[in-house]
Design brief:
The chain has 338 residues and is α/β, with parallel strands linked by helices. The protein contains 15 helices and nine strands. Strands 2-3-6-1-7 form a five-stranded parallel beta sheet, with helices on one face. The chain has a two-stranded antiparallel ribbon with strand order 4-5. It has a two-stranded antiparallel sheet with strand order 8-9. Bound molecules: adenine. The site of adenine (ADE) has 12 residues, from helix 7.
């Protein structure tokens, strides 16, 4: 199987951890039951018909396992997978080279597919629909249209931003599946599994504590586990106790709800600089020096999920829970909005 690993939001260290801990078998993938069931039916039905499964789009916040699922879908279909990402495919020629190098039954995974250049994206339409590339050679009256047949491949796209996927592209996916934040007990199970792989001893209460602060996200849970393990080796005897987990996470400035300093900066800005909001995206970005896309992709999904902010048509509003969490008084004028 040819696999080029690519995960743009991660630094090389994080990528190594992800690859070690990433489930390699369908049965080892914890959570996202609805998606697993959905995808399994697609795979089994395609196998029965001796066809490739339909193109699939996974969307949802970062770190929930879109890339892992893509690999597992290919593996479950006994197929090769090629891995790339939207921003890496700069020119139409890059995509054409990639598509023409595939074989029948191969999977192509395009991470961050919303960042595909629009000109390049147009070549995907006929490739996905008819397994053909429509090329125009030359210019003006001498220009010639030629169709190139492509192998029957399955495209798996992943995105954190379904809203940025154009409707012609969206309509060419046979299944569009949303990954949701994990349940606490699923994150606990993932931490237990990861501790076993890393051969680190961990108390049940420590698992619960790390899980509680992991923002319902496996990537964060695994990152914290690794940091807490370092702490246990240096400050303790190597075993992760509840006390060590608490101390390490406090030291890392991860609070009770799993918020990191960056998350709190956003919340505090809405409350202190915008009187609780609503704050527009542009203004919030200027006030926090965070890029608009980071606010949308990284910070906001969990702040909304955990009920700390609300998105209204006028902008982001800090909720009652946000004031309580930061221990700040709710201004009288804001009460009526909450
Ligand atoms: N590691 C990261 N995500 C996982 C998942 N969903 N199941 C098991 N281990 C994981």
């Amino acid at each position: 199987m040819s696999v080029k690993s690519f995960s743009p939001q991660l630094n090389p260290d994080e990528e190594v951890i992800e690859n070690t801990l990433r489930p390699k078998k369908w049965a080892d993938y914890i959570g996202q039951e609805r998606i697993k069931k959905n995808v399994k039916v697609m795979i089994d039905a395609a196998k029965k018909r001796n066809e490739s499964p339909d193109h699939i789009l996974f969307y949802g916040p970062a770190g929930l396992g879109k890339t892992t699922l893509a690999h597992l879908v290919a593996k479950e279909s006994n197929a090769n997978i090629r891995v790339t990402s939207g921003p890496v495919i700069e020119k139409a020629g890059d995509l054409i080279a990639l598509l023409t190098s595939l074989s029948d039954g191969d999977f192509l995974f395009i991470d961050e597919i919303h960042r595909l250049n629009h000109f390049v994206e147009e070549y995907l339409y006929s490739a996905m629909e008819d397994f053909k590339l429509n090329l125009i050679l030359g210019k003006g009256p001498m220009a010639k249209n030629i169709d190139i047949d492509l192998p029957r491949f399955t495209l798996i796209g992943a995105t954190t931003r379904l809203d940025l996927i154009s409707s012609p592209l969206r309509s060419r996916f046979g299944a569009i599946l949303q990954l949701n934040f994990y349940e606490l007990n699923e994150i606990e199970e993932i931490i237990k599994r990861s501790s076993d792989i890393l051969s680190v001893e961990i108390e049940v209460d420590a698992i619960k504590e790390i899980s509680k602060r992991s923002r319902c996200t496996p990537r964060i849970a695994n990152k914290f586990l690794k940091r807490v393990r370092d702490f246990a080796e240096i400050e303790g005897q190597g075993k992760i106790t509840r006390d060590i987990a608490d101390k390490a996470l406090d030291f890392l400035e991860i609070d009770e709800m799993g918020l990191e300093p960056g998350d709190r900066k956003i919340l505090e800005a809405i409350i202190k600089k915008f009187n609780g909001g609503p704050a527009g995206l542009q203004a919030l970005s200027a006030a926090t020096s965070e890029e608009k896309n980071s606010i949308l992709d990284i910070y906001e999904p969990y702040l909304i999920q955990s009920g700390l902010i609300k998105r209204t048509s006028q902008g982001r509003l800090a909720t009652r829970l946000a004031y309580e969490h930061l221990n700040l008084p709710i201004p009288k004028a804001q009460e009526k909005l909450l």
